[in-house]
Amino acid sequence: MHSAAPFDALLLLSFGGPEGPDDVIPFLRNVTRGRGVPPERLAEAGAHYRLFGGVSPINGQNRELIAAIEKDFADAGVGLPVYWGNRNWQPYLGDTLRRMADDGVRRAAVLVTSAYASYSGCGQYHENLLAARAETGAEAPVLDKLRHYYNHPGFVEPLVDHTVAAFDDLPAGVRADARLVMTTHSIPVATAETAGPEGGAYVAQHRETARLVAEGVARALGREHAWDLVYQSRSGPPHLPWLEPDVNDHLARLKADGVPAAVLVPIGFVSDHMEVVYDLDVQAAETAATLGLPVARAATTGADPRFAAAVRDLVLERAAALRGESPDRRVLGALGPSHDVCPLGCCPDPRGRGAGLRGAALEAVPPLSS
Ligand SMILES: CC1=C(CCC(=O)O)c2cc3nc(cc4[nH]c(cc5[nH]c(cc1n2)c(C)c5CCC(=O)O)c(CCC(=O)O)c4C)C(CCC(=O)O)=C3C
Ligand SMILES: [Fe+2]
């Protein structure tokens, strides 16, 4: 039996996605409210969802992850219930927090389905948590968002195995010289510059995960593969600079440079959701086919039991820290374990919206801890 005190629940906080054709437009309105996404891009995104019957894979994948965590908790004797709330679709975070309060939950660890520091993957989730607590009122549980897990072995090791497996999908003759193309969501350069306590954390953390995955692959295959970090799924007004190169442009460059094949590794995402199954498996695959460049795509970490165990690890580690102990913090590579509590001003909204709310609320309610 492991003590998870002072936690009496885990909350999985995710993005959310439509579950049928009628959900697509309302979902996209939720995602882009006040975010300056041009209408063309919105129509395009809607078309991607419609290609999959209006159903995003993300909700099913979160249900699988919750089942894996529940099994892991049960096997390890960790008696915490797991709740689930989303930013942009049902089950909405506000409703879940209300239910947690009604169930008598006093303090919950929060796992977001985003491994890296950025406004979209960290700061905005903090804002969502603050807003949901305010909406719930005095009975709202105290919420402690768990540290970034991009360099946790339970996140990285499944990525290594999935990358090794993807080589089998390439023609045998080109495998040894295939390039590893590590991909993540593009974000505005200005947002990347302010990510994390000192800025630049989004790119620095991705480079670290990319390096760790490439190292693991080299160990498994007994040969080195060169790698690049590239970006996908860009949106927003075209005059603003976003992180580059785009994965499609990068594949063209590899072809021009005489690289015979590529393995796409979506290190930026936790599950094979729409940005993976459309932007890579449809769009980038089409680019590669036009170029005559063989590509394979590695699966994300998803509901791998090692990731579920990592979640338990992070919960127990944080619980111990809150009890004043000095827990062992499992981590790979050179950057060390991420901070427990995001300092003020970490991962701010690039558009400056909510900055007042965020700053003021964070001061009034110290970083989501009592
Ligand atoms: C860094 C990052 C992650 C990774 C971290 C994480 O995983 O959280 C992520 C994840 C996701 N993004 C998703 C979907 C969308 N993101 C959009 C728009 C945007 N994303 C951005 C960034 C990120 N997004 C940004 C800077 C914008 C521009 C508007 C804004 O500044 O907010 C739009 C609007 C239309 C479009 O532009 O495509 C949609 C539909 C889904 C759900 C997929 C599914 O349904 O399976 C997921 C998991
Ligand atoms: Fe996104």
UniProtKB/TrEMBL annotation:
<protein>
    <recommendedName>
        <fullName>Coproporphyrin III ferrochelatase</fullName>
        <ecNumber>4.99.1.9</ecNumber>
    </recommendedName>
</protein>
<dbReference type="InterPro" id="IPR033644">
    <property type="entry name" value="Ferrochelatase_C"/>
</dbReference>
<feature type="binding site">
    <location>
        <position position="275"/>
    </location>
    <ligand>
        <name>Fe(2+)</name>
    </ligand>
</feature>
<feature type="binding site">
    <location>
        <position position="56"/>
    </location>
    <ligand>
        <name>Fe-coproporphyrin III</name>
    </ligand>
</feature>
<feature type="binding site">
    <location>
        <position position="185"/>
    </location>
    <ligand>
        <name>Fe(2+)</name>
    </ligand>
</feature>
<keyword id="KW-0479">Metal-binding</keyword>
<keyword id="KW-0350">Heme biosynthesis</keyword>
<dbReference type="InterPro" id="IPR001015">
    <property type="entry name" value="Ferrochelatase"/>
</dbReference>
<dbReference type="Pfam" id="PF00762">
    <property type="entry name" value="Ferrochelatase"/>
</dbReference>
<keyword id="KW-0456">Lyase</keyword>
<keyword id="KW-0627">Porphyrin biosynthesis</keyword>
<dbReference type="InterPro" id="IPR033659">
    <property type="entry name" value="Ferrochelatase_N"/>
</dbReference>
<keyword id="KW-0963">Cytoplasm</keyword>
<comment type="function">
    <text>Involved in coproporphyrin-dependent heme b biosynthesis. Catalyzes the insertion of ferrous iron into coproporphyrin III to form Fe-coproporphyrin III.</text>
</comment>
<comment type="similarity">
    <text>Belongs to the ferrochelatase family.</text>
</comment>
<dbReference type="InterPro" id="IPR019772">
    <property type="entry name" value="Ferrochelatase_AS"/>
</dbReference>
<feature type="binding site">
    <location>
        <position position="125"/>
    </location>
    <ligand>
        <name>Fe-coproporphyrin III</name>
    </ligand>
</feature>
<keyword id="KW-0408">Iron</keyword>
<comment type="pathway">
    <text>Porphyrin-containing compound metabolism; protoheme biosynthesis.</text>
</comment>
